[in-house]
């Protein structure tokens, strides 16, 4: 195609604070309708907003993380429009003096690094929820969500493909999860994304007319919607039509974007400074303290896992996807100094267990704390148990929280490595499987595997595979 | 009927202290008085005798020592009282009972006060005459064919007619001071941020303040000392460095050495001669009592009304957007769709002045006009405030002006011409724009026995100085002793 | 800057207020008068650097600690509702394309 898409993304993130942006109501998800409200977030006459410090601190963290410059003074503005989910018929948001501006986020595009500039990160309050019922001629409003703290992160139109958009969202989500300021769950609505897309001929630098796309409910949905819209706009242009600046809704079932043109009135938001709030200064010491409290960012950590710990890129990539998992990994290294081994077990058996039980690492890390895991590895290293045995033991550790050594003792699982006892079993097995033994002598290596397996059966898996392997070979070679 | 209703709060507190009278007796007396005169004055929109008596009884039994223990206070209808009808005298808030008390109400109740009832006002505080109430117009007790002023006309008339011992009003452009002047009582607008706005149904958020309307200066100091104070529910509430709210301390009969400034811009040709004379006589009295009187200038005064009507209507248009029939108040019948519901609810629920101001405010904020109107007005507002700063920095303690250019005008005289109504706020408006405190005290009467008020304007958080000057003047005159014939 | 009737209708739509034709005419006159009056601000020579004034004074960073305070019950929230269904506020159906 001779055209390329030009995409900008607007991401709204619900900050995970205990109370709402401007009042003390709880922020728990899923409460019964209109039970998490008060005169302030209901917008009752006479009510007034008071800013939640934690929302500001969360916003500062994000602003630092995406390299924004922090404003000396920030103001809130009123964005005036009428809608039933907006209790005051204005939203308290930020306009020309936002909290932070001019940052950037790095993403991976075809193996290379690309910088997406971030126009601004600002604070605003969320609206309530409208419920439209099938077959009813009324709509219902629940204001539990009204007043929840939102962070709006606006990118410049630096994204040039739906795939890049997906990458951007993924990278942003990971970063935000690292900062621990939001669940970033699109299904629960704690992360929302709108996109602006226009097209231009490759090589051009001017911007075409853009359409705003809404109602995308997953990262894949964003990608699909942008793919569709790009094709639609190119088709229009090639057909001689002009692109209309409008809002379009993504329909995930029909996989198309639909114009909201009939609803489209030029929105005159009549922004003006919020008179119920005064301008806020962001003291240098608060900014410094926030900066210092930032965790190591995912990309940096990944590099360190690869360069300093010698992990393969794949392992590093998997581990850093979940900050808690990566923390756990590093804690284990304090007690056992073989990164690849630890990584294997975490990515393998432990992750499998977590997935099967729908748990997170924080749910089990007390049961199988880093020291305990290290203990298990040392048992393997000492030969007391086999690697295979360890797989069963770790399951028991995860279920019960018992130490490896305790489980080994209780269940008598210690590996038998002592030649004398194994000798006897080996003789038995050879005697019982004469044909297989002959097969081995004829050259079939697999036959030995079978015999080893028989020994394992007899010893209930406790025979040291390396030792029994050696004993059998020796005996058969005689 | 005993004549307890004629007394001031401080007189009644003395009697309560010596137990020569009970709170219930006071409340009964005031209710009887209201029963007898309010059908003429129409100051009240809600009067709940039963509840007030009950509160009075509880207050008496309560062992704690409240500054206003047992005193009934009337409340303007734009201040939220939990479970009580609070409608801003508007059809669009018909039936609204807020689920919470305004902070000032909590403070009153903690001080042992009894809530007397709700007083009438211009709808949403838009007005200077109380004629735009959706209930009925309140009338001036001194002449029932004239307006009491507004928007706190009900509170001022009630106090003037002795059907309230003291009252709360709100002031955005003069709405406490102007009706106080026109009704011959004391009214004060505190420094912006001195009194919490939490629970005050907002008109213009950066201008509104709640304040006392009372029979004399001592009562005003008393009531302000109860309602003033930092409130963490109001982000514009201020805790000043010298946080002095015990205003009674300032009530001394002494103005020796006080410097009073007379701004030339407030004594323009064409102003009512009787008003001018009364105010100039007050100036003479201050001089005789030992104050130093100097001429000062507030050069941007002539722009104040224009600035106000841009900023206040802009903020109001946004503050009143929430009245839409969704959560409370009036909703139009059989809306076809949501747009119809909004448009007809607001078209039917708001009175003409409210609609006018919302329209004006919407216009000045709309795309293409913001810089020309709103931003410009905010800059001139700065210049107006700087004028006051300069005068106070030069050593002036109080600025003295007339409160209103005329005495009370006749009902209907200005209602057809909004602009002429707006211009009647000319002496009070700058004060709200700057955010400084000001008090109106009676300073005379016209030949037709209509009250005239003078205004004293002070520097930020210097209510104490204002009370001292006002008290001194009051103690050396007898205006408060004259009562309307009802 | 006079305000035509079309403009009045536009503002009324922005403000969600239904005006009768009589009101449109009346407000057109009255708003004209008021706007003509406020034009006097243009006579004033304002220096570009004059900082606009949003508040008389600025309390220093009035924010609050992130702690939960009790909400009101849904009954209380809905008590004044002109129309409700169960624990929801009810409005005419919103149609979204």
Describe the model.
- The complex is a heterotrimer of chains A (478), B (486) and C (97).
- Chain A has helices spanning 53-65, 162-179, 219-238, 284-292, 298-307, 313-320, 323-333, 339-356, 361-364, 370-381, 387-400, 404-411, 419-432, 434-442, 445-458, 465-477; strands spanning 3-14, 51-52, 69-70, 73-74, 77-80, 90-93, 100-109, 112-125, 129-132, 138-142, 149-155, 191-201, 211-216, 247-251, 256-259, 272-273, 280-281.
- Chain A is α+β, with helices and mostly antiparallel strands and 478 residues long.
- Chain A has a nine-stranded mixed sheet with strand order 3-7-8-11-1-12-13-14-15.
- Chain A is elongated.
- Chain A starts with a strand and ends with a helix.
- An eleven-stranded mixed sheet of chain B has the order 1-3-2-4-6-5-10-11-9-7-8.
- Chain B starts with 8 loop residues before the first helix and ends in an 11-residue tail after the last helix.
- By secondary structure, chain C is α+β, with helices and mostly antiparallel strands.
- Chain C has a two-stranded antiparallel sheet with strand order 2-3.
- In chain C, strand 2 and strand 3 form a beta hairpin.
- Classes of the chains: A alpha+beta (478), B alpha/beta (486), C alpha+beta (97).
- Chains B and C meet through helix 9, helix 10, helix 11, helix 12 and helix 13 of B and helix 1, helix 2 and strand 3 of C.
Concise summary:
The complex is a heterotrimer of chains A (478), B (486) and C (97). Chain A is of the alpha+beta class and 478 residues long. Chain A has 16 helices and 17 strands.
Sequence of secondary-structure elements of chain C: HHEHEE
Number of helices of chain A: 16
Oligomer: heterotrimer
Q: Care to count the β-strands of chain A?
A: 17
Given as residue ranges, the uncertain stretches of chain C (5+ residues, pLDDT < 50) are none
Straight-line distance between termini of chain A? 72 Å
- What is the name of the CATH topology of the domain at 5-42 in chain C? Histone, subunit A
Q: Determine Rg of chain A (CA atoms, Å).
A: 30 Å
- Mean pLDDT of chain A comes to 91
3D shape of chain A: elongated
Overall pLDDT metric of chain C: 90
What is the first-to-last residue Cα distance of chain C?
Answer: 39 Å
Spatial strand order of the main sheet of chain A: 3-7-8-11-1-12-13-14-15
């Amino acid at each position: 195609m001779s055209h390329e898409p030009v995409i900008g993304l607007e991401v709204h993130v619900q900050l995970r604070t205990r109370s709402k942006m401007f009042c003390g109501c709880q922020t728990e998800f899923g409460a019964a309708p209109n039970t998490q409200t008060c005169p302030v977030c209901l917008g009752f006459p006479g009510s007034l907003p008071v800013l939640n410090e934690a929302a500001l601190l969360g916003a500062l963290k994000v602003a630092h993380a995406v390299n924004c410059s922090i404003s000396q003074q920030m103001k809130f503005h009123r964005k005036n429009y009428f809608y039933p989910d907006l209790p005051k018929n204005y939203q308290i948001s930020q306009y020309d003096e936002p909290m932070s501006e001019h940052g950037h986020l790095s993403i991976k595009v075809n193996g290379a690094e690309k910088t997406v500039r971030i126009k601004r990160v600002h604070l605003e309050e969320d609206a309530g929820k409208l419920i439209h019922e099938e077959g009813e001629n009324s709509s219902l409003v629940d204001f539990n969500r009204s007043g929840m703290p939102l962070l709006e992160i606006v990118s410049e139109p630096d994204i040039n493909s739906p795939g890049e958009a997906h990458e951007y969202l993924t990278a942003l989500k990971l970063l935000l999860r690292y900062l621990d300021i939001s669940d970033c769950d699109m299904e629960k609505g704690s992360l929302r994304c709108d996109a602006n897309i226009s097209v231009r001929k490759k090589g051009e630098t001017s911007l075409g007319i853009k359409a705003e796309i809404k109602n995308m409910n997953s990262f894949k949905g964003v990608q699909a919607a942008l793919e569709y819209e790009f094709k639609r706009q190119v088709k229009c242009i090639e057909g001689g039509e002009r692109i209309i600046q409008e809002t379009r809704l993504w329909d995930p079932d029909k996989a198309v974007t639909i114009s909201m043109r009939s609803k489209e009135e030029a929105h005159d938001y009549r922004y003006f400074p919020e008179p119920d709030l005064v301008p806020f200064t962001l003291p240098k010491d608060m900014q410094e303290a926030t900066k210092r409290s930032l965790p190591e960012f995912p990309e940096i950590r990944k590099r360190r896992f690869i360069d300093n710990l010698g992990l393969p890129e794949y392992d590093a990539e998997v581990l850093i996807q979940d900050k808690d998992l990566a923390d756990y990994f590093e804690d284990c290294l304090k007690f056992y100094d073989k990164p690849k081994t630890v990584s294997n077990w975490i990515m393998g058996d432990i992750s499998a267990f977590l997935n099967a039980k729908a748990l997170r690492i924080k749910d089990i890390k007390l049961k199988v704390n880093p020291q305990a895991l290290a203990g298990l590895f040392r048992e393997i290293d000492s030969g007391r148990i086999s690697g295979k045995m360890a797989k069963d033991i770790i399951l028991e550790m995860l279920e019960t929280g018992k130490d490896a050594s305790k489980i080994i003792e209780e269940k008598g699982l210690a590996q038998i490595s002592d030649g004398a006892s194994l000798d006897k079993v080996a003789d038995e097995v050879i005697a019982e499987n004469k044909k297989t033994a002959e097969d081995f002598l004829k050259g079939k290596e697999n036959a030995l595997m079978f015999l080893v397996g028989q020994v394992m059966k007899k010893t209930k898996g406790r025979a040291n595979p390396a030792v029994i392997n050696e004993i059998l070979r020796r005996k058969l070679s005689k | 009927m005993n004549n307890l209703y004629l007394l001031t709060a401080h007189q009644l507190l003395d009697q309560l202290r010596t137990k020569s009278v009970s709170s219930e007796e006071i409340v009964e007396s005031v209710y009887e008085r209201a029963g007898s005169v309010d059908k003429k004055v129409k100051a009240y929109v809600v009067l709940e005798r039963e509840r007030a008596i009950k509160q009075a009884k509880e207050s008496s039994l309560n062992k704690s020592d409240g500054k206003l223990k047992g005193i009934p206070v009337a409340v303007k209808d734009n201040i939220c009282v939990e479970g009580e009808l609070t409608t801003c005298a508007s059809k669009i808030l018909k039936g609204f009972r807020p689920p919470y008390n305004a902070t000032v109400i909590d403070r009153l109740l903690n001080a042992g006060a009894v809530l007397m009832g709700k007083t009438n006002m211009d709808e949403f505080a838009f007005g200077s005459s109380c004629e735009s109430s959706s209930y009925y117009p309140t009338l001036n007790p001194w002449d029932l064919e004239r307006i009491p002023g507004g928007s706190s006309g009900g509170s001022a008339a009630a106090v003037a007619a002795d059907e309230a011992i003291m009252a709360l009003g709100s002031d955005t452009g003069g709405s406490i001071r102007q009706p106080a002047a026109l009704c011959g009582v004391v009214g004060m607008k505190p420094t912006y941020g001195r009194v919490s706005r939490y629970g005050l149904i907002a008109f213009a958020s950066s201008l509104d303040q709640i304040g006392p309307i009372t029979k004399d200066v001592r009562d005003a100091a008393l009531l302000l000392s109860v309602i003033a104070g930092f409130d963490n529910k109001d982000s514009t509430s201020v805790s000043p460095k010298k946080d002095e709210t015990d205003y009674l301390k300032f009530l001394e009969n002494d103005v020796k050495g006080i410097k009073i400034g007379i701004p030339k811009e407030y004594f323009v040709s064409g102003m009512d001669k009787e008003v001018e004379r009364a105010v100039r006589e007050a100036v003479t009295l201050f001089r005789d009592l030992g104050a130093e009187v100097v001429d000062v200038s507030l050069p941007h005064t002539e722009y104040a009304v224009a600035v106000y009507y841009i900023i206040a209507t802009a903020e109001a248009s946004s503050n009143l957007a929430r009245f839409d029939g969704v959560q409370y108040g009036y909703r139009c019948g059989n809306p076809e769709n949501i747009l119809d519901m909004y448009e007809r609810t607001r078209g039917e629920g708001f009175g003409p002045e409210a609609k006018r101001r919302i329209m004006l405010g919407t216009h000045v904020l709309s795309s293409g006009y913001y810089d020309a109107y709103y931003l410009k007005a905010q800059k001139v507002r700065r210049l107006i405030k700087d004028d006051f700063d300069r005068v106070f920095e030069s050593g002036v303690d109080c600025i003295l002006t007339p409160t209103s250019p005329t005495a009370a005008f006749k009902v209907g005289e200005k209602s057809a011409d909004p602009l002429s109504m707006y211009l009647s706020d000319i002496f009070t408006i700058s004060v709200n724009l700057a955010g400084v405190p000001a008090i109106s005290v009676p300073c005379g009467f016209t030949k037709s026995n209509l009250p005239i008020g003078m205004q004293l304007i002070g520097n930020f958080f210097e209510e104490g100085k204002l009370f001292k000057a006002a008290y001194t003047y009051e103690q050396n005159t007898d205006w408060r002793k004259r009562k309307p014939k009802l | 800057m006079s305000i035509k009737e079309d403009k009045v209708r536009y503002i009324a739509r922005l403000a969600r207020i239904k005006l009768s034709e009589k009101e449109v005419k009346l407000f057109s006159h009255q708003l004209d008068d008021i706007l003509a009056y406020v034009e006097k601000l243009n006579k004033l020579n304002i220096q570009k650097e004059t900082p606009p004034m949003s508040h008389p004074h600025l309390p220093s960073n009035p924010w609050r600690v992130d702690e939960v305070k009790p909400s009101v019950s849904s009954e209380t929230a809905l008590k004044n509702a002109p129309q409700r269904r169960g624990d929801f506020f009810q409005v005419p159906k919103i149609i979204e394309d």
